Sequence to fold (395 residues):
Amino acid sequence: MKYIILVPDGAADYPVEEYSNKTPLEVANLENIREIERRSEIGLIKTLFDDMDYGSDVANMTILGYDPKKYLTGRGALEALALDINLQRNDVAFRCNFITVQNNIIISYNADNITTEESRSLIKELNERFNHIGKFYTGIGYRNIFVTKLDVEEIKTYPPHDIVGKNIYNYLIEPRNNPKIKELNDMIIESRKVLEPHEINKHRKKRGKKPANMIWLWGQGRKPEAMSFYDKYKLKAGVAAEVIVIKGIGKLLHMEVPNIPGATGSFDTNYDNLAKYAIELLKRNDLVFIHVESPDEAGHEGDFELKVKCLEEIDRRIVGHILNKINEITDDFKLAILPDHPTPVKIRTHTGDPVPYLIYSSNKNIKNCLKFCERDARNGKFLEGLNFMRYFLKF
Ligand SMILES: [Zn+2]
Fold:
């Protein structure tokens, strides 16, 4: 038996008036998913908790059956794992976004989708300027890491995608009276002097792109520890993912985590390579966890049609490829498709609503007339996120 879990990040949504009160999942032309959904179970699953951040780190840990309250120390620490950064005691790893600021207002949480190569040059500059405070590491695109020694336990930070249009001075790191935190806040403010005049930003402005003129630190955490996926489920597993937070979860659980060429975590990502690597992973493993970032990004951009297009690409180039190739590996497989959380285009951030799931088994003869969408899923079963893995494996 082989197991495939496909997570289109942030794919769930709310009905949008301008599109006949439909959601992107309802509007998208999903030929492959529509083909298998007639023989699948459709239902709703709650992947988030109302007393925790509505983050992808929380949701994906939950889907994998690991209680985020117990195992999650902060997204930055997971992402550090993905970059093979060896965190020491007293180290805190922050996610470091490149952002765009105008008159102290955040106008882009990802510096207009800055590339990894551009980030690399800026990170080099930051390390030269601020090496007495900590160390910056290049990640993927605008998603980078900053590590520093810190003995403050209760640190509060704000995800930049939640404060677009807001004044930076109201959302700096807290508690602001702590001298070490003040040093970090001063560094954030000063980063503008280093970044604004940088060559990379001159080129970006010439090309009509917003400059990456400030850093933003958030999602901090200390080194996490958890039981391996194999020890927990007795299954060998791999992760086909683009973004470092998901790769970090894979590394934490000792799953196989390849670097996938062209997997950018943005709209230009190489969906074909994600699918190919997923199939390769499945040859050597019992289970593959595939995570695709683009629908979430489209949700944060507030772009309905772009989100529809991302879902169609995932259906055609990932689901299609897997259904084509799986028979070369096995006749016996289960496939689950579920978003980790909604990122509704109307509100442009994550919400904690339950999301639709689809579970298909090559061994089961199900007759189903529910569609894989938010509306129909309400007429199916309701699962608690932490029960998903056991449910899926036994299905
Ligand atoms: Zn997510």
Residues 9-10, 56, 59, 296, 340-341 surround zinc ion (CB under 6 Å).
